[in-house]
DNA sequence: ATAGGGTTAG
C-alpha cells in the first residue's frame, strides 16, 4: 500500500492533473485546470480531457462540455462513453442524444453501457420515436439481449406511454432480474394500471424472485391508488419482518399508502419513525393531512418542515394550498401563495392557480376568485382554473356567473362531458329545466357520456366493486334489501333525500331509483352487512361524492353507530355520529 | 493519469 502510493506520487500527477482532481465539480476551478492543461501542453491527453468533460457535466455546465468536445481532436470510445454517461445521469437528456449522434458520426462503436445511458435519456424525454431508433441501433449492434439494456428499454416504453412495447421487451427477456421486474411493475403503476402492477408483483413472487425496497415502492403506490389497505399492510409487515432497508422513498411510499387508504395515524407513525426525511416526505405528510381535512395540522407540519431546513418546492405548495382550500384557511393560503414567489423564487403554475381559485371559491369569495383569474395572462387562464371557478359558482348558487363561465369552458373544451354535467346542474338548481334538457340533448348529439361512478371496498382482503344500480354482485338481493331498511331508519331519524340535480341519461321514473342506489350507498350497505360492529368502513370512490349520499351516510353513521370513511376523487370524508370531517365544506 | 449500468416515493 505504502509502496504503491510512493509510486503514484513520484510518478506523479502533473500540476494540470492535480488541479483537475482538486477542482471536483466546481466550474471556476475546472476552467483553471483547463488552462493548466493547455499551458502545460497536455491538451492532447484524452484521459485528462475525459475527466474534464465529465466534471463539466456533473458541474451542470453542459455548454462548456459541448465547447470542450469540439476542441478534442480525436475523441475515443472511452471519452464518448464517459460523456454520454455523465450527461445522461446529470439530467441533460437532449445533450446525451446529441453526443451519441456525434459518437456515431465519428464511427466510434457504442457499447451496452452507451445504450443504457442513451435509452435512459430517451426515457427522460418520453420520446418514443427517438427511443425506437436507438432501440434498433442496439439490436443491430447485438445488445438486444443485454439485461441492462432491456430493463432500460422497459422503462423507456413505459415512460413514453407504450405499455405494450414495454411488455414485449419484458416478455422477450430470457433472464429477468429483480430490476427487470421492478421496471415492469413500475411501468404498470405509472400508467395507472394498478391492478396489473400488483398482478406482476404476484407473478414475480411465483417465480421466486426476491422483491426489494424498490419493488415495494411501486407496489405501495399501486395500493394507494386502489385503496388496497390489506395488501399495503402486508407489505409493511414484510418489510419489517425481513429487515428490508426502509429508504426515504419506501418510507414516503408507506406514508402515502396509509394516508390514501384512510389510516392517518399509521401514516403519522411511519413519518415519526423515519430517520431521514426529504422534501418529498414532507410533502407527502402535508398533503395527507390536507386531504383528510386537517388543515391546521398540515400548516403546522409545513412550518416544521421549513424550521428543519427543508426547502419547499412547487409540489409542496400544491399540497399546502390545497390543504388551505379544504379547510377554509383563506388568510394562510393567500400568504403562502405570495411567499411562494417572494420567498422561494418559485413560479406558480396552473395547479397553484387552481388551488387558489378553489380556496377563494369555496369560501364564497367569488368576486375575488374571478378577479384573480382575470389578472392572470391569457395562457395562464387554463381550463382547469375556470373549472374550479365553475365549481365555486355551483356551490354558492351564483347562476349568472356560472352559466357565463360554463359557456366559456365549453367554447374551449367542447368534448369534456364534465363541463356539460356541471352546466346542467347549475340550470337544474336555478329551476331552468328547459335548459337542462337542452344541455342533455347537446351531450347526446356530441355522443358524450358522463363518467361512470363506482365505489370499492375491501372485506376480508377481497376488493368489491359497485356501480350505480349495479346488480352484478352475488348478494345483490340482501344488499338492496338492507340498504332499503337503512334508508328507512335514516328517514325516521330525520333524513330527507336531497333533491337530485345530477344529469341523468335515464327516464324520469328511474331517477329516484338511481339516486337511491348510488355506488357509495351500495358499498356502505355491503360493508355494514359483512363486517362486525366496531369495524370502520372504508370506501374508495372514483368521482366526487354527491350531496345526497353525503347526507345519507351521515345518518347511516348515527343509526348504525359506525365510523365510515369515504375517499372521493379529491379528499376524505370521515363520517361519525352524524357528522363529516369535511364540515360539509368540500 | 479516464467509467462502468437498468428499477423507486409527493
From TrEMBL:
<dbReference type="Pfam" id="PF01535">
    <property type="entry name" value="PPR"/>
</dbReference>
<dbReference type="InterPro" id="IPR046960">
    <property type="entry name" value="PPR_At4g14850-like_plant"/>
</dbReference>
<keyword id="KW-0677">Repeat</keyword>
<dbReference type="InterPro" id="IPR011990">
    <property type="entry name" value="TPR-like_helical_dom_sf"/>
</dbReference>
<dbReference type="InterPro" id="IPR002885">
    <property type="entry name" value="PPR_rpt"/>
</dbReference>
<comment type="similarity">
    <text>Belongs to the PPR family. PCMP-H subfamily.</text>
</comment>
<dbReference type="GO" id="GO:0008270">
    <property type="term" value="F:zinc ion binding"/>
</dbReference>
<feature type="repeat" description="PPR">
    <location>
        <begin position="278"/>
        <end position="312"/>
    </location>
</feature>
<dbReference type="GO" id="GO:0009451">
    <property type="term" value="P:RNA modification"/>
</dbReference>
<feature type="repeat" description="PPR">
    <location>
        <begin position="177"/>
        <end position="211"/>
    </location>
</feature>
<dbReference type="Pfam" id="PF14432">
    <property type="entry name" value="DYW_deaminase"/>
</dbReference>
<protein>
    <recommendedName>
        <fullName>DYW domain-containing protein</fullName>
    </recommendedName>
</protein>
<dbReference type="GO" id="GO:0003723">
    <property type="term" value="F:RNA binding"/>
</dbReference>
<dbReference type="InterPro" id="IPR032867">
    <property type="entry name" value="DYW_dom"/>
</dbReference>
<dbReference type="Pfam" id="PF20431">
    <property type="entry name" value="E_motif"/>
</dbReference>
<dbReference type="Pfam" id="PF13041">
    <property type="entry name" value="PPR_2"/>
</dbReference>
<dbReference type="InterPro" id="IPR046848">
    <property type="entry name" value="E_motif"/>
</dbReference>
<dbReference type="GO" id="GO:0031425">
    <property type="term" value="P:chloroplast RNA processing"/>
</dbReference>
<feature type="domain" description="DYW">
    <location>
        <begin position="494"/>
        <end position="586"/>
    </location>
</feature>
Amino acid at each position: 500500500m505504502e509502496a504503491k502510493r510512493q509510486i503514484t506520487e513520484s510518478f506523479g500527477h502533473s500540476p494540470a492533473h492535480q488541479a483537475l482532481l482538486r477542482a471536483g465539480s466546481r466550474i471556476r476551478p475546472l476552467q483553471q485546470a483547463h488552462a493548466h492543461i493547455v499551458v502545460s501542453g497536455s491538451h492532447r491527453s484524452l484521459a485528462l480531457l475525459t475527466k474534464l468533460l465529465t466534471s463539466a457535466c456533473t458541474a451542470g455546465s453542459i455548454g462548456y462540455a459541448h465547447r470542450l468536445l469540439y476542441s478534442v481532436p480525436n475523441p475515443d470510445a472511452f471519452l464518448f462513453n464517459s460523456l454520454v454517461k455523465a450527461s445522461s445521469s446529470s439530467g441533460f437528456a437532449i445533450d446525451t442524444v446529441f453526443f451519441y449522434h456525434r459518437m456515431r458520426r465519428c464511427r466510434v462503436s457504442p457499447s451496452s453501457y452507451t445504450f443504457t445511458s442513451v435509452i435512459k435519456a430517451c426515457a427522460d424525454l418520453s420520446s418514443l420515436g427517438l427511443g425506437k431508433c436507438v432501440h434498433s441501433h442496439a439490436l443491430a449492434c447485438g445488445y438486444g439481449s443485454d439485461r441492462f439494456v432491456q430493463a432500460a428499454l422497459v422503462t423507456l416504453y413505459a415512460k413514453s406511454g407504450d405499455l405494450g412495447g414495454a411488455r414485449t421487451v419484458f416478455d422477450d427477456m430470457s433472464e429477468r432480474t429483480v430490476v427487470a421486474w421492478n421496471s415492469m411493475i413500475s411501468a404498470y403503476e405509472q400508467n395507472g394500471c394498478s391492478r396489473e402492477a400488483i398482478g406482476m408483483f404476484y407473478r414475480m413472487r411465483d417465480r421466486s424472485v426476491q422483491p426489494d425496497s424498490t419493488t415495494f415502492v411501486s407496489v405501495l403506490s399501486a395500493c394507494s391508488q386502489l385503496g388496497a389497505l390489506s395488501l399495503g399492510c402486508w407489505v409493511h409487515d414484510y418489510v419489517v419482518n425481513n429487515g428490508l432497508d426502509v429508504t426515504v422513498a419506501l418510507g414516503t411510499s408507506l406514508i402515502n399508502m396509509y394516508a390514501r387508504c384512510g389510516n392517518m395515524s399509521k401514516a403519522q407513525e411511519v413519518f415519526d419513525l423515519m430517520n431521514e426525511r426529504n422534501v418529498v416526505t414532507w410533502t407527502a405528510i402535508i398533503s395527507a393531512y390536507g386531504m383528510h381535512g386537517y388543515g391546521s395540522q398540515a400548516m403546522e407540519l409545513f412550518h416544521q418542515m421549513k424550521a428543519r431546513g427543508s426547502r419547499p418546492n412547487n409540489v409542496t405548495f400544491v399540497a399546502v394550498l390545497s390543504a388551505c382550500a379544504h379547510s377554509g384557511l383563506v388568510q394562510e393560503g393567500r400568504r403562502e401563495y405570495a411567499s411562494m414567489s417572494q420567498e422561494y423564487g418559485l413560479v406558480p403554475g396552473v395547479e397553484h392557480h387552481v388551488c387558489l381559485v378553489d380556496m377563494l371559491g369555496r369560501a364564497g369569495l367569488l368576486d375575488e376568485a374571478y378577479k384573480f383569474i382575470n389578472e392572470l395572462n391569457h395562457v395562464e387562464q387554463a381550463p382547469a382554473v375556470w373549472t374550479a371557478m365553475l365549481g365555486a359558482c355551483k356551490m354558492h348558487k351564483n347562476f349568472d356567473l356560472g352559466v357565463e363561465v360554463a359557456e366559456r369552458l365549453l367554447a374551449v373544451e367542447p368534448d369534456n362531458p364534465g363541463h356539460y354535467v356541471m352546466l346542467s346542474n347549475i340550470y337544474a338548481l336555478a329551476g331552468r329545466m328547459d335548459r337542462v334538457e337542452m344541455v342533455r340533448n347537446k351531450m347526446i348529439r356530441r355522443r358524450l357520456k358522463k363518467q361512470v361512478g363506482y365505489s370499492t371496498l375491501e372485506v376480508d382482503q377481497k376488493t368489491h366493486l359497485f356501480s350505480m344500480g349495479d346488480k352484478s354482485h352475488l348478494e345483490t338481493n340482501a344488499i338492496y334489501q338492507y340498504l332499503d331498511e337503512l334508508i328507512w331508519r335514516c328517514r325516521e331519524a330525520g333524513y330527507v333525500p336531497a333533491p337530485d340535480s345530477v344529469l341523468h341519461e335515464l327516464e324520469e321514473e328511474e331517477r329516484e331509483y338511481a339516486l337511491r342506489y348510488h355506488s357509495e350507498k351500495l358499498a356502505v350497505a355491503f360493508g355494514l352487512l359483512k363486517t362486525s360492529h366496531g369495524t370502520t368502513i372504508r370506501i374508495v370512490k372514483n368521482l366526487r361524492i354527491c350531496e345526497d349520499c353525503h347526507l345519507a351516510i351521515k345518518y347511516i353513521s348515527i343509526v348504525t353507530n359506525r365510523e365510515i370513511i369515504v375517499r372521493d376523487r379529491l379528499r376524505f370524508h370521515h363520517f361519525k355520529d352524524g357528522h363529516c370531517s369535511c364540515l360539509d365544506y368540500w
